[in-house]
Design goal:
CATH class: Mainly Alpha
Protein name: Cytochrome P450
Distance between the termini: 48 Å
Cofactor: heme
Radius of gyration: 24 Å
Oligomer: single chain
Shape: globular
InterPro entries: Cyt_P450 (IPR001128), Cyt_P450_CS (IPR017972), Cyt_P450_E_grp-I (IPR002401), Cyt_P450_sf (IPR036396), Cytochrome_P450_fung (IPR050364)
Pathway: Secondary metabolite biosynthesis
CATH superfamily: Cytochrome P450
Binding site for heme: 440
Length: 518
Protein backbone atom coordinates (compact mmCIF):
# COMPACT_ATOMS: atom_id res chain seq x y z
CA UNK A 1 0.00 0.00 0.00
CA UNK A 2 3.05 2.28 0.23
CA UNK A 3 2.91 3.44 -3.39
CA UNK A 4 -0.72 4.49 -3.01
CA UNK A 5 0.06 6.44 0.14
CA UNK A 6 2.92 8.28 -1.56
CA UNK A 7 0.77 9.03 -4.60
CA UNK A 8 -2.04 10.27 -2.41
CA UNK A 9 0.22 12.51 -0.34
CA UNK A 10 1.79 14.02 -3.47
CA UNK A 11 -1.53 14.98 -5.02
CA UNK A 12 -2.91 16.11 -1.66
CA UNK A 13 -0.10 18.62 -1.37
CA UNK A 14 -0.69 19.88 -4.91
CA UNK A 15 -4.42 20.31 -4.32
CA UNK A 16 -4.29 21.33 -0.67
CA UNK A 17 -5.84 24.73 -1.21
CA UNK A 18 -8.79 23.16 -3.00
CA UNK A 19 -9.36 20.67 -0.19
CA UNK A 20 -9.22 23.33 2.49
CA UNK A 21 -11.61 25.62 0.64
CA UNK A 22 -14.04 22.80 0.00
CA UNK A 23 -13.98 21.87 3.67
CA UNK A 24 -14.71 25.48 4.60
CA UNK A 25 -17.64 25.68 2.19
CA UNK A 26 -19.21 22.55 3.71
CA UNK A 27 -19.21 23.85 7.27
CA UNK A 28 -22.62 24.18 8.84
CA UNK A 29 -24.25 25.16 12.08
CA UNK A 30 -24.95 22.14 14.22
CA UNK A 31 -26.76 21.57 17.48
CA UNK A 32 -24.63 18.65 18.67
CA UNK A 33 -20.85 18.09 18.66
CA UNK A 34 -19.21 15.61 16.34
CA UNK A 35 -18.05 12.34 17.89
CA UNK A 36 -14.56 12.33 19.46
CA UNK A 37 -11.59 11.89 17.13
CA UNK A 38 -7.79 11.91 17.04
CA UNK A 39 -6.01 15.19 16.51
CA UNK A 40 -6.02 16.33 12.87
CA UNK A 41 -2.85 17.05 10.94
CA UNK A 42 -2.65 20.11 8.68
CA UNK A 43 -4.02 19.56 5.18
CA UNK A 44 -4.40 15.77 5.39
CA UNK A 45 -6.61 15.71 8.48
CA UNK A 46 -6.98 12.17 9.83
CA UNK A 47 -5.67 10.46 6.69
CA UNK A 48 -2.95 8.55 8.53
CA UNK A 49 -5.39 7.48 11.23
CA UNK A 50 -7.78 6.15 8.61
CA UNK A 51 -5.07 4.26 6.73
CA UNK A 52 -3.89 2.72 10.00
CA UNK A 53 -7.27 1.02 10.47
CA UNK A 54 -5.94 -1.76 8.24
CA UNK A 55 -4.07 -2.81 11.40
CA UNK A 56 -6.10 -4.61 14.05
CA UNK A 57 -4.38 -2.86 16.95
CA UNK A 58 -5.53 0.48 15.53
CA UNK A 59 -9.13 -0.76 15.42
CA UNK A 60 -8.91 -1.77 19.07
CA UNK A 61 -7.41 1.62 19.84
CA UNK A 62 -10.38 3.45 18.34
CA UNK A 63 -12.64 1.87 20.95
CA UNK A 64 -10.26 2.00 23.92
CA UNK A 65 -9.10 5.57 23.26
CA UNK A 66 -12.28 7.25 22.03
CA UNK A 67 -15.25 5.15 23.11
CA UNK A 68 -18.23 3.65 21.29
CA UNK A 69 -18.29 6.11 18.38
CA UNK A 70 -15.34 7.77 16.64
CA UNK A 71 -15.06 10.43 13.93
CA UNK A 72 -12.25 10.83 11.39
CA UNK A 73 -12.12 13.50 8.69
CA UNK A 74 -10.15 13.38 5.44
CA UNK A 75 -10.42 16.04 2.71
CA UNK A 76 -13.86 17.10 3.83
CA UNK A 77 -15.27 13.57 4.06
CA UNK A 78 -16.49 12.41 7.47
CA UNK A 79 -15.82 8.82 8.53
CA UNK A 80 -17.72 7.37 11.49
CA UNK A 81 -16.63 4.16 13.26
CA UNK A 82 -19.17 2.36 15.44
CA UNK A 83 -17.48 0.38 18.20
CA UNK A 84 -20.63 -0.75 20.01
CA UNK A 85 -23.13 -3.42 18.94
CA UNK A 86 -26.20 -1.52 20.13
CA UNK A 87 -25.12 1.56 18.19
CA UNK A 88 -24.79 -0.58 15.06
CA UNK A 89 -28.31 -1.95 15.56
CA UNK A 90 -29.69 1.53 16.25
CA UNK A 91 -28.26 2.97 13.04
CA UNK A 92 -28.06 0.11 10.53
CA UNK A 93 -31.28 -1.64 11.56
CA UNK A 94 -33.62 0.73 13.39
CA UNK A 95 -32.67 3.66 11.13
CA UNK A 96 -31.95 1.45 8.14
CA UNK A 97 -33.81 3.73 5.76
CA UNK A 98 -31.15 6.39 6.34
CA UNK A 99 -28.05 4.20 6.68
CA UNK A 100 -28.44 1.44 4.06
CA UNK A 101 -26.80 3.00 1.03
CA UNK A 102 -23.18 2.89 -0.06
CA UNK A 103 -20.84 5.82 -0.63
CA UNK A 104 -20.27 6.60 -4.28
CA UNK A 105 -16.67 5.65 -5.06
CA UNK A 106 -15.17 6.57 -8.40
CA UNK A 107 -12.92 3.51 -8.19
CA UNK A 108 -16.03 1.31 -8.16
CA UNK A 109 -17.16 3.03 -11.36
CA UNK A 110 -13.77 2.67 -13.02
CA UNK A 111 -13.51 -1.01 -12.13
CA UNK A 112 -17.12 -1.81 -13.02
CA UNK A 113 -18.26 -2.92 -9.56
CA UNK A 114 -21.00 -0.29 -9.39
CA UNK A 115 -22.70 -1.83 -12.44
CA UNK A 116 -23.35 -5.24 -10.89
CA UNK A 117 -21.85 -6.09 -7.50
CA UNK A 118 -24.36 -5.84 -4.67
CA UNK A 119 -21.67 -4.63 -2.27
CA UNK A 120 -21.30 -1.47 -4.36
CA UNK A 121 -24.93 -0.85 -5.32
CA UNK A 122 -26.74 2.07 -3.67
CA UNK A 123 -29.85 1.25 -1.69
CA UNK A 124 -32.76 1.44 -4.10
CA UNK A 125 -35.16 -0.55 -6.31
CA UNK A 126 -32.45 -2.62 -8.03
CA UNK A 127 -30.88 -3.75 -4.77
CA UNK A 128 -34.25 -4.48 -3.14
CA UNK A 129 -35.37 -6.52 -6.16
CA UNK A 130 -32.14 -8.52 -6.15
CA UNK A 131 -32.33 -9.32 -2.45
CA UNK A 132 -36.05 -10.14 -2.64
CA UNK A 133 -35.53 -12.66 -5.44
CA UNK A 134 -32.57 -14.27 -3.67
CA UNK A 135 -34.43 -14.46 -0.36
CA UNK A 136 -36.68 -17.20 -1.73
CA UNK A 137 -33.66 -19.47 -2.21
CA UNK A 138 -31.59 -18.43 0.82
CA UNK A 139 -34.14 -17.93 3.60
CA UNK A 140 -33.95 -20.35 6.56
CA UNK A 141 -36.78 -22.55 5.25
CA UNK A 142 -34.88 -23.05 1.98
CA UNK A 143 -31.58 -24.15 3.53
CA UNK A 144 -32.52 -27.84 4.08
CA UNK A 145 -32.63 -28.23 0.29
CA UNK A 146 -28.85 -27.74 0.35
CA UNK A 147 -28.13 -30.24 3.14
CA UNK A 148 -27.38 -33.11 0.77
CA UNK A 149 -24.72 -31.34 -1.34
CA UNK A 150 -23.26 -29.68 1.76
CA UNK A 151 -22.90 -33.05 3.48
CA UNK A 152 -21.31 -34.63 0.41
CA UNK A 153 -18.92 -31.67 0.18
CA UNK A 154 -17.95 -32.09 3.84
CA UNK A 155 -17.18 -35.77 3.31
CA UNK A 156 -15.00 -35.06 0.28
CA UNK A 157 -13.17 -32.28 2.13
CA UNK A 158 -12.28 -34.62 5.00
CA UNK A 159 -11.00 -37.24 2.55
CA UNK A 160 -8.94 -34.68 0.63
CA UNK A 161 -7.33 -33.38 3.81
CA UNK A 162 -6.42 -36.91 4.86
CA UNK A 163 -4.94 -37.67 1.43
CA UNK A 164 -3.03 -34.39 1.08
CA UNK A 165 -2.66 -32.83 4.53
CA UNK A 166 0.29 -30.70 3.45
CA UNK A 167 -1.99 -28.98 0.91
CA UNK A 168 -4.87 -28.33 3.30
CA UNK A 169 -5.17 -24.67 2.28
CA UNK A 170 -5.65 -25.49 -1.39
CA UNK A 171 -7.98 -28.37 -0.54
CA UNK A 172 -10.24 -26.05 1.48
CA UNK A 173 -10.36 -23.50 -1.36
CA UNK A 174 -11.17 -26.23 -3.88
CA UNK A 175 -13.89 -27.74 -1.69
CA UNK A 176 -15.69 -24.45 -1.03
CA UNK A 177 -15.49 -23.27 -4.64
CA UNK A 178 -16.74 -26.66 -5.84
CA UNK A 179 -19.82 -26.57 -3.62
CA UNK A 180 -20.72 -22.95 -4.37
CA UNK A 181 -20.23 -23.30 -8.12
CA UNK A 182 -22.27 -26.52 -8.21
CA UNK A 183 -25.19 -24.92 -6.35
CA UNK A 184 -25.14 -21.58 -8.17
CA UNK A 185 -24.18 -22.64 -11.71
CA UNK A 186 -24.32 -26.44 -11.81
CA UNK A 187 -20.60 -26.52 -12.58
CA UNK A 188 -18.32 -29.26 -11.28
CA UNK A 189 -14.80 -28.14 -10.46
CA UNK A 190 -12.47 -31.02 -11.22
CA UNK A 191 -9.01 -29.68 -10.38
CA UNK A 192 -7.61 -27.51 -7.61
CA UNK A 193 -6.22 -25.10 -10.20
CA UNK A 194 -9.57 -24.65 -11.95
CA UNK A 195 -9.74 -21.04 -13.24
CA UNK A 196 -12.98 -20.35 -11.34
CA UNK A 197 -11.15 -20.86 -8.04
CA UNK A 198 -8.73 -18.10 -8.99
CA UNK A 199 -11.42 -15.77 -10.33
CA UNK A 200 -13.11 -15.42 -6.96
CA UNK A 201 -9.82 -14.91 -5.10
CA UNK A 202 -8.70 -12.15 -7.44
CA UNK A 203 -12.16 -10.59 -7.51
CA UNK A 204 -12.59 -10.36 -3.75
CA UNK A 205 -9.12 -8.85 -3.40
CA UNK A 206 -9.74 -6.31 -6.18
CA UNK A 207 -13.11 -5.23 -4.78
CA UNK A 208 -11.69 -4.80 -1.29
CA UNK A 209 -8.82 -2.74 -2.67
CA UNK A 210 -11.23 -0.48 -4.55
CA UNK A 211 -12.97 0.36 -1.25
CA UNK A 212 -9.70 1.67 0.20
CA UNK A 213 -8.43 5.24 0.17
CA UNK A 214 -8.00 6.64 -3.33
CA UNK A 215 -7.87 10.40 -3.75
CA UNK A 216 -9.95 10.16 -6.92
CA UNK A 217 -12.95 9.23 -4.75
CA UNK A 218 -12.78 12.71 -3.20
CA UNK A 219 -11.57 14.49 -6.33
CA UNK A 220 -13.33 12.81 -9.29
CA UNK A 221 -11.70 15.19 -11.77
CA UNK A 222 -8.46 13.23 -11.36
CA UNK A 223 -9.82 10.38 -13.47
CA UNK A 224 -9.65 12.63 -16.54
CA UNK A 225 -5.99 13.61 -16.15
CA UNK A 226 -3.25 11.94 -18.25
CA UNK A 227 -2.05 8.63 -16.76
CA UNK A 228 1.63 9.65 -17.01
CA UNK A 229 1.24 12.40 -14.41
CA UNK A 230 2.56 11.72 -10.89
CA UNK A 231 -0.15 10.32 -8.65
CA UNK A 232 -2.15 8.76 -11.48
CA UNK A 233 -1.16 5.18 -10.66
CA UNK A 234 -4.74 4.45 -9.67
CA UNK A 235 -5.70 4.42 -13.37
CA UNK A 236 -3.57 1.33 -13.98
CA UNK A 237 -5.02 -0.30 -10.88
CA UNK A 238 -8.53 0.48 -12.14
CA UNK A 239 -7.79 -0.94 -15.59
CA UNK A 240 -6.67 -4.25 -14.10
CA UNK A 241 -9.53 -4.22 -11.59
CA UNK A 242 -12.07 -3.81 -14.39
CA UNK A 243 -10.86 -7.00 -16.07
CA UNK A 244 -11.13 -8.92 -12.81
CA UNK A 245 -14.59 -7.49 -12.07
CA UNK A 246 -15.96 -8.45 -15.48
CA UNK A 247 -14.48 -11.96 -15.20
CA UNK A 248 -16.29 -12.49 -11.91
CA UNK A 249 -19.53 -11.03 -13.26
CA UNK A 250 -19.73 -12.68 -16.68
CA UNK A 251 -17.62 -15.83 -16.90
CA UNK A 252 -19.55 -18.05 -14.44
CA UNK A 253 -22.88 -17.31 -16.12
CA UNK A 254 -21.43 -17.68 -19.62
CA UNK A 255 -20.12 -21.10 -18.61
CA UNK A 256 -23.51 -22.05 -17.15
CA UNK A 257 -25.39 -20.92 -20.26
CA UNK A 258 -23.09 -22.86 -22.58
CA UNK A 259 -23.32 -26.09 -20.55
CA UNK A 260 -27.07 -25.71 -20.04
CA UNK A 261 -27.87 -25.13 -23.70
CA UNK A 262 -25.42 -27.64 -25.16
CA UNK A 263 -25.41 -30.43 -22.56
CA UNK A 264 -28.45 -29.83 -20.37
CA UNK A 265 -26.18 -29.44 -17.33
CA UNK A 266 -27.10 -27.27 -14.36
CA UNK A 267 -30.86 -27.73 -14.56
CA UNK A 268 -31.12 -27.86 -10.75
CA UNK A 269 -28.74 -24.93 -10.18
CA UNK A 270 -29.77 -21.61 -8.69
CA UNK A 271 -29.17 -19.95 -12.06
CA UNK A 272 -31.67 -22.28 -13.74
CA UNK A 273 -34.20 -21.86 -10.93
CA UNK A 274 -34.01 -18.08 -11.12
CA UNK A 275 -34.52 -18.11 -14.88
CA UNK A 276 -37.47 -20.47 -14.54
CA UNK A 277 -39.06 -18.37 -11.77
CA UNK A 278 -38.88 -15.30 -13.98
CA UNK A 279 -40.47 -17.05 -16.94
CA UNK A 280 -43.18 -18.67 -14.82
CA UNK A 281 -44.32 -15.38 -13.31
CA UNK A 282 -43.71 -13.28 -16.38
CA UNK A 283 -41.25 -11.21 -14.37
CA UNK A 284 -39.24 -9.28 -16.93
CA UNK A 285 -36.80 -8.08 -14.27
CA UNK A 286 -35.41 -11.63 -13.98
CA UNK A 287 -33.47 -11.67 -17.23
CA UNK A 288 -30.07 -13.16 -18.01
CA UNK A 289 -28.27 -10.08 -16.71
CA UNK A 290 -30.15 -10.30 -13.42
CA UNK A 291 -29.30 -14.00 -13.03
CA UNK A 292 -25.64 -13.33 -13.81
CA UNK A 293 -25.56 -10.66 -11.08
CA UNK A 294 -27.42 -12.76 -8.50
CA UNK A 295 -25.44 -15.98 -8.93
CA UNK A 296 -22.07 -14.26 -9.20
CA UNK A 297 -22.91 -12.37 -6.01
CA UNK A 298 -23.32 -15.62 -4.06
CA UNK A 299 -20.26 -17.10 -5.71
CA UNK A 300 -18.16 -14.01 -4.93
CA UNK A 301 -19.43 -13.29 -1.43
CA UNK A 302 -19.66 -16.86 -0.18
CA UNK A 303 -16.58 -18.66 -1.39
CA UNK A 304 -13.73 -16.60 0.04
CA UNK A 305 -15.39 -15.86 3.39
CA UNK A 306 -16.12 -19.55 4.01
CA UNK A 307 -12.53 -20.45 3.16
CA UNK A 308 -11.37 -17.95 5.77
CA UNK A 309 -13.66 -19.43 8.44
CA UNK A 310 -12.54 -23.02 7.75
CA UNK A 311 -8.85 -22.13 7.77
CA UNK A 312 -9.35 -20.38 11.10
CA UNK A 313 -11.00 -23.56 12.39
CA UNK A 314 -7.98 -25.66 11.34
CA UNK A 315 -5.62 -23.15 12.96
CA UNK A 316 -7.62 -23.18 16.20
CA UNK A 317 -7.71 -26.99 16.35
CA UNK A 318 -3.94 -27.05 15.79
CA UNK A 319 -3.31 -24.62 18.64
CA UNK A 320 -5.95 -25.88 21.09
CA UNK A 321 -5.88 -29.70 21.17
CA UNK A 322 -7.94 -29.77 24.36
CA UNK A 323 -10.81 -28.07 22.49
CA UNK A 324 -10.60 -30.64 19.70
CA UNK A 325 -10.57 -33.49 22.21
CA UNK A 326 -13.69 -32.23 24.00
CA UNK A 327 -15.52 -31.79 20.68
CA UNK A 328 -14.64 -35.34 19.62
CA UNK A 329 -15.86 -36.65 22.96
CA UNK A 330 -19.16 -34.86 22.39
CA UNK A 331 -19.48 -36.38 18.91
CA UNK A 332 -18.73 -39.88 20.20
CA UNK A 333 -21.26 -39.45 22.99
CA UNK A 334 -24.06 -37.87 20.95
CA UNK A 335 -23.90 -39.77 17.65
CA UNK A 336 -21.59 -42.67 18.49
CA UNK A 337 -18.05 -43.58 17.52
CA UNK A 338 -17.12 -44.05 13.87
CA UNK A 339 -20.35 -42.46 12.65
CA UNK A 340 -20.53 -39.51 10.29
CA UNK A 341 -22.59 -36.56 11.59
CA UNK A 342 -25.69 -35.44 9.73
CA UNK A 343 -27.74 -32.27 9.89
CA UNK A 344 -30.17 -34.07 12.20
CA UNK A 345 -27.33 -34.35 14.71
CA UNK A 346 -26.21 -30.73 14.62
CA UNK A 347 -28.77 -29.29 17.09
CA UNK A 348 -27.45 -31.74 19.69
CA UNK A 349 -23.79 -30.83 19.14
CA UNK A 350 -23.66 -27.83 21.49
CA UNK A 351 -19.89 -27.75 21.84
CA UNK A 352 -19.21 -28.11 18.13
CA UNK A 353 -21.59 -25.21 17.51
CA UNK A 354 -19.76 -23.21 20.17
CA UNK A 355 -16.51 -23.84 18.28
CA UNK A 356 -18.12 -22.51 15.12
CA UNK A 357 -19.19 -19.34 16.94
CA UNK A 358 -15.80 -18.88 18.58
CA UNK A 359 -14.05 -19.16 15.21
CA UNK A 360 -16.18 -16.24 13.99
CA UNK A 361 -15.32 -14.19 17.07
CA UNK A 362 -11.67 -15.11 17.66
CA UNK A 363 -10.48 -14.24 14.15
CA UNK A 364 -13.45 -12.74 12.37
CA UNK A 365 -13.48 -12.92 8.60
CA UNK A 366 -13.59 -9.13 8.16
CA UNK A 367 -12.50 -6.52 10.68
CA UNK A 368 -14.72 -3.72 9.38
CA UNK A 369 -18.10 -3.84 7.69
CA UNK A 370 -18.52 -2.64 4.16
CA UNK A 371 -19.01 1.16 4.26
CA UNK A 372 -22.51 2.56 4.75
CA UNK A 373 -23.49 6.14 4.10
CA UNK A 374 -26.08 8.28 5.85
CA UNK A 375 -28.31 10.30 3.54
CA UNK A 376 -29.32 13.12 5.92
CA UNK A 377 -27.98 14.83 9.01
CA UNK A 378 -28.57 12.68 12.08
CA UNK A 379 -27.91 12.55 15.81
CA UNK A 380 -27.09 9.60 18.05
CA UNK A 381 -26.24 9.62 21.77
CA UNK A 382 -25.73 13.37 21.72
CA UNK A 383 -23.39 13.37 18.71
CA UNK A 384 -23.95 14.91 15.30
CA UNK A 385 -23.61 12.66 12.23
CA UNK A 386 -23.34 14.82 9.08
CA UNK A 387 -25.16 13.81 5.92
CA UNK A 388 -23.02 11.80 3.49
CA UNK A 389 -20.77 10.52 6.27
CA UNK A 390 -19.20 7.12 5.58
CA UNK A 391 -20.07 4.79 8.46
CA UNK A 392 -18.31 1.54 9.43
CA UNK A 393 -19.13 -1.13 11.99
CA UNK A 394 -15.88 -1.85 13.83
CA UNK A 395 -16.49 -5.58 14.14
CA UNK A 396 -13.00 -6.40 15.37
CA UNK A 397 -13.16 -4.05 18.35
CA UNK A 398 -16.50 -5.48 19.47
CA UNK A 399 -15.24 -9.07 19.30
CA UNK A 400 -12.18 -8.00 21.32
CA UNK A 401 -14.12 -6.17 24.02
CA UNK A 402 -13.24 -7.90 27.33
CA UNK A 403 -16.46 -6.66 28.92
CA UNK A 404 -18.36 -8.87 26.45
CA UNK A 405 -15.81 -11.65 25.89
CA UNK A 406 -13.39 -12.12 28.83
CA UNK A 407 -9.86 -13.05 27.72
CA UNK A 408 -10.69 -12.15 24.12
CA UNK A 409 -7.28 -13.25 22.78
CA UNK A 410 -7.91 -16.85 23.83
CA UNK A 411 -9.98 -19.40 21.93
CA UNK A 412 -12.67 -20.38 24.46
CA UNK A 413 -15.78 -22.05 22.96
CA UNK A 414 -17.15 -22.59 26.47
CA UNK A 415 -18.05 -18.90 26.65
CA UNK A 416 -21.04 -19.71 24.41
CA UNK A 417 -22.29 -22.48 26.73
CA UNK A 418 -23.08 -20.60 29.94
CA UNK A 419 -23.87 -22.49 33.11
CA UNK A 420 -26.90 -22.02 35.31
CA UNK A 421 -28.84 -18.83 34.70
CA UNK A 422 -25.97 -17.00 33.00
CA UNK A 423 -26.73 -15.22 29.76
CA UNK A 424 -24.50 -16.14 26.82
CA UNK A 425 -22.48 -13.31 25.29
CA UNK A 426 -23.40 -11.70 21.98
CA UNK A 427 -23.66 -14.34 19.24
CA UNK A 428 -20.95 -13.37 16.71
CA UNK A 429 -23.30 -14.33 13.88
CA UNK A 430 -25.47 -11.32 14.70
CA UNK A 431 -22.78 -8.94 13.52
CA UNK A 432 -20.27 -10.98 11.48
CA UNK A 433 -22.75 -11.09 8.57
CA UNK A 434 -23.60 -7.39 8.99
CA UNK A 435 -26.78 -5.85 10.39
CA UNK A 436 -29.92 -4.36 8.91
CA UNK A 437 -30.97 -4.08 5.29
CA UNK A 438 -27.47 -4.86 3.97
CA UNK A 439 -26.91 -8.05 5.96
CA UNK A 440 -25.41 -10.94 4.01
CA UNK A 441 -28.25 -12.80 2.23
CA UNK A 442 -26.24 -16.03 2.34
CA UNK A 443 -25.81 -16.05 6.14
CA UNK A 444 -27.91 -19.17 6.79
CA UNK A 445 -26.27 -21.10 3.95
CA UNK A 446 -22.80 -20.17 5.24
CA UNK A 447 -23.64 -21.20 8.81
CA UNK A 448 -24.95 -24.62 7.81
CA UNK A 449 -22.00 -25.13 5.44
CA UNK A 450 -19.32 -24.39 8.03
CA UNK A 451 -21.16 -26.31 10.76
CA UNK A 452 -21.32 -29.60 8.82
CA UNK A 453 -17.73 -29.17 7.61
CA UNK A 454 -16.40 -28.64 11.13
CA UNK A 455 -18.45 -31.48 12.61
CA UNK A 456 -17.33 -33.88 9.87
CA UNK A 457 -13.65 -32.98 10.23
CA UNK A 458 -13.83 -33.43 14.00
CA UNK A 459 -15.56 -36.80 13.61
CA UNK A 460 -13.07 -38.16 11.08
CA UNK A 461 -9.73 -36.39 11.57
CA UNK A 462 -7.13 -35.46 14.13
CA UNK A 463 -5.58 -32.05 13.46
CA UNK A 464 -2.24 -31.58 15.21
CA UNK A 465 0.94 -29.52 15.21
CA UNK A 466 3.52 -30.46 12.60
CA UNK A 467 6.88 -31.77 13.82
CA UNK A 468 10.18 -30.17 12.78
CA UNK A 469 13.44 -31.93 11.91
CA UNK A 470 14.43 -31.99 15.58
CA UNK A 471 11.28 -33.78 16.64
CA UNK A 472 9.75 -30.69 18.20
CA UNK A 473 6.20 -29.44 17.54
CA UNK A 474 5.87 -26.38 15.31
CA UNK A 475 3.58 -23.87 17.00
CA UNK A 476 1.81 -21.78 14.34
CA UNK A 477 1.69 -18.04 14.77
CA UNK A 478 -1.71 -16.37 14.77
CA UNK A 479 -1.05 -14.04 11.87
CA UNK A 480 -3.51 -12.95 9.20
CA UNK A 481 -3.40 -11.17 5.87
CA UNK A 482 -4.40 -7.51 5.71
CA UNK A 483 -6.95 -8.06 2.96
CA UNK A 484 -10.62 -7.20 3.46
CA UNK A 485 -11.40 -10.92 3.79
CA UNK A 486 -8.72 -12.10 6.20
CA UNK A 487 -6.92 -15.42 5.82
CA UNK A 488 -4.37 -16.98 8.15
CA UNK A 489 -0.79 -16.58 6.96
CA UNK A 490 0.19 -20.10 5.70
CA UNK A 491 1.05 -22.40 8.58
CA UNK A 492 1.92 -26.06 9.03
CA UNK A 493 -0.10 -28.80 10.69
CA UNK A 494 -0.71 -32.53 10.33
CA UNK A 495 -4.08 -34.10 9.55
CA UNK A 496 -4.71 -37.81 9.77
CA UNK A 497 -7.73 -40.12 10.26
CA UNK A 498 -8.91 -40.82 13.80
CA UNK A 499 -8.88 -44.54 12.98
CA UNK A 500 -9.12 -46.93 10.04
CA UNK A 501 -12.78 -47.72 10.68
CA UNK A 502 -13.97 -44.14 10.26
CA UNK A 503 -11.72 -43.68 7.22
CA UNK A 504 -13.24 -46.75 5.57
CA UNK A 505 -16.76 -45.52 6.36
CA UNK A 506 -15.94 -42.06 5.01
CA UNK A 507 -14.70 -43.38 1.67
CA UNK A 508 -17.54 -45.87 1.28
CA UNK A 509 -20.03 -43.08 1.94
CA UNK A 510 -18.39 -40.80 -0.63
CA UNK A 511 -18.54 -43.57 -3.22
CA UNK A 512 -22.23 -44.20 -2.54
CA UNK A 513 -23.05 -40.48 -2.65
CA UNK A 514 -21.14 -40.02 -5.90
CA UNK A 515 -23.01 -42.88 -7.57
CA UNK A 516 -26.38 -41.50 -6.45
CA UNK A 517 -25.49 -38.02 -7.72
CA UNK A 518 -24.44 -39.19 -11.18
Amino acid sequence: MTHKLLDALFVICVLASFAVSRSWLKRRNQKYPLPPRPKELPIIGNLLDMLSTREIHALEGLRSDYGPIVHLKVLGTNYIYLNDYQLIVDLFEKRGGMYSSRPHLVMNDLEGWSTWFVGALPYGPELRNLRQKLHRFLQPSAIPSYFRPQTHSAHKLADRLIRKPEEFGEMVKHSVAELVMMITHGYKIEEADDPFVGIVEKGVEAFADAQGFYLVNDLPMLQYLPPWLPGMGFLKVAEEGYKVSMDMYKKPYEMFKKNFEEKGQGSSSLAAKLLESGKGKGDQSVDEDFVAKATSLIYAAGADTTVSALLTFILAMTLYPEVQKRAQEELDSVIGKNILPTFDDLPKLKYVNAIRKECLRWQNVVTLSNPHTVEVDDEINGYFIPANSVVFANIWSIFRDPSIYPEPERFIPERFIPSGNEEPPLDPGKIAFSVGRRHCPGKHFAESHTFIDMATLLATCNIEKAINDHGMPIIPKVEYTRQFVRHPIPFKCTIWPRNNEVLSLLRQTIETETLSND
